[in-house]
Amino acid sequence: QVELVESGGGLVQTGDSLRLSCAFSIRSIVNPSYAMGWFRQAPGKEREFVAGIRWSGGYTYYADSVEGRFTVSRDDAKNTGFLQMNDLKPEDTAVYYCAAGTVMAVSREHGYTYWGQGTQVTVSS
């Protein structure tokens, strides 16, 4: 059993930065190789992939819309993943979710079995 707790959202201005955190606790697992993905959903829109990282190797993946502005990372000692968001734009406004699981494709929702509660990011123009 895995728990994910997100934090770090807020209201900012265009061009500002935010860092989201996703702390996880593992109660019992069969396979220790996990990936962490970040997704976002704006009102009236479908949930979309933002960024992700393979936990064991640190390989990172980004959506075209955020590559060069966002950076995903992890702290193994603290069991925490991070999403650093720079140069934020109004179109980044959404509820951001972290997810974890043993997945084949980091950018797809399929395979992620554990999800955080979501944190609101609002970017004003």
Explain how this protein is built.
- With 125 residues, the protein is mainly β.
- Helices cover 0% and strands 51% of the residues.
- It contains no helices and eleven strands.
- The strands form two sheets. Strands 2, 4, 5, 6, 9, 10 and 11 form a seven-stranded mixed sheet that branches. It has a four-stranded antiparallel sheet with strand order 1-3-8-7, with no helix packed on it.
- Strand 7 and strand 8 form a beta hairpin.
- The N and C termini lie far apart (41 Å).
What's this model, at a glance?
The protein is an all-beta fold and 125 residues long. Helices cover 0% and strands 51% of the residues.
State the share of residues found in helices, binned by percent. Answer: under 10%
* Rg result: 14 Å
General form: globular
Unreliably modeled segments: none
Report the major sheet. 7 strands, mixed
The succession of helices and strands, N to C, reads: EEEEEEEEEEE
- End-to-end C-alpha gap: 41 Å
Estimated share of beta-strand residues: over 45%
Counted beta strands: 11
Number of helices: 0
**Structural class of the helix and strand makeup?**
mainly beta
Calculate the mean pLDDT score and round it: 91
